[in-house]
Amino acid sequence: MLQPRVGLQHGVVPQHRVVLQHRAVTSLTLPTRTAVMPLGVVALVTCFLVAASTPAQAAAEATGVAVSVRASDPTAGGASQAFTAPVGSAVDVVRDGFAVGSAGVPGVPMGSDAVRPVDGSVPTAGGFGSRWVRGCGACSTNHQGLDFAAVSGSPAVAAMPGRVVAAGVLGGYGDQVLVQHTSGVQTRYGHLSAIDVRVGQVVAAGERVGAVGSTGVSTGPHLHFEVIVDGRPVDPADWLRARGLL
Q1: CA atoms within 13 A on the CB side of 95
Q2: Of 1, 3, 88, 165, which residue is the least packed, with the fewest Cβ within 10 Å?
Q3: Model's pTM, two decimal places?
Q4: In the structure, how many helices (H) and strands (E) does the chain have?
Q5: Can you tell me whether residue 60 is helix, strand or coil?
Q6: Mean pLDDT across 232-237
């Protein structure tokens, strides 16, 4: 059986329909890149801002104008923080922990008064240390005090406040008084013609302890004055000069 022949017409090209599908284009938004400033530039800008703001703040403080300091907070969406220093504000400084004073002279308690023990002159041979007294073989050649020539009966007074620890006759000193002061200092008053205090008595600076005389080993009326620091005699002239008393 013969199949029907399908004839092709010459010159006719079969047309194939092409269907183009349009894809939806998705919109893509790229995040804006935050500009990052190099560390060196940040430091340079910071120095510039400090240098520019410091003179203005100094001038404002000098003229009494309140100074406002603002700091940006990067986490607050551009918000800023401000601090205003009130004009005329002051900070109280507590000074109760110390006191101001002058340095004292060794052997003298601070705040105590010192006076000259007698109103009299110092003879040439009356100084402290080695000496030789003409016509007095019994006089000491190593003088432990300072001799003041004075009229017999003149008042001898305590050089500083203290307590009497000895009063009476003592060898070459004759009638003498020994006063104990603070800080290990003692003063002695020798060759007295009279003793006006007793052991244990508290005396003030300038208070009379006796009268000038010539008892003991002596060549004439005078006051023998000693300053003893920690059991060792020191030059009374230096001690008195340090206090403007000689």
Answers
A1: 5
A2: 1
A3: 0.52
A4: 2, 13
A5: helix
A6: 91
Query: How open is the CA angle 23-29-30, to the nearest 5 degrees?
Result: 130
Instruction: Compute the CA torsion angle 64, 66, 67, 71 (nearest 10 deg).
Output: 170
Whether residue 115 contacts residue 157, with contact meaning beta carbons closer than 8 Å, is answered with: yes
Q: Residues 190, 196, 200, 204: is their CA dihedral positive or negative? A: negative
Strand ranges in 97-198 using DSSP code E only, listed in sequence order: 129-130, 142-143, 146-149, 155-157, 162-169, 175-180, 185-195
194's CB contacts (< 8 A; 6+ apart) are 153, 175, 210, 211, 213
Distance CA 187, CA 174 (A): 16
Q: Spell out a b/e string for 143-172, using b for 16 or more CB atoms within 10 Å of the CB, else e.
A: bbbbbbebeeebbbbbbbbbebeebeeeee
Angle at 38 between CA 35 and CA 39, to 5 degrees: 135
- The answer to whether 163 touches 203, Cβ cutoff 8 Å, is yes
CB atoms within 10 A of CB 190: 28
CA-CA distance, 125 to 147, in Å (whole number)? 8
End-to-end CA distance of the chain: 168
Classified by CATH at the fold level, domain 124-241 comes out as Glucose Permease (Domain IIA) (2.70.70)
Give pLDDT tens digits for 124-174: 556 656 655 555 555 666 578 889 999 999 999 999 999 999 999 998 899
Of 226, 159, 167, give the one whose Cα is nearest residue 201.
Answer: 167
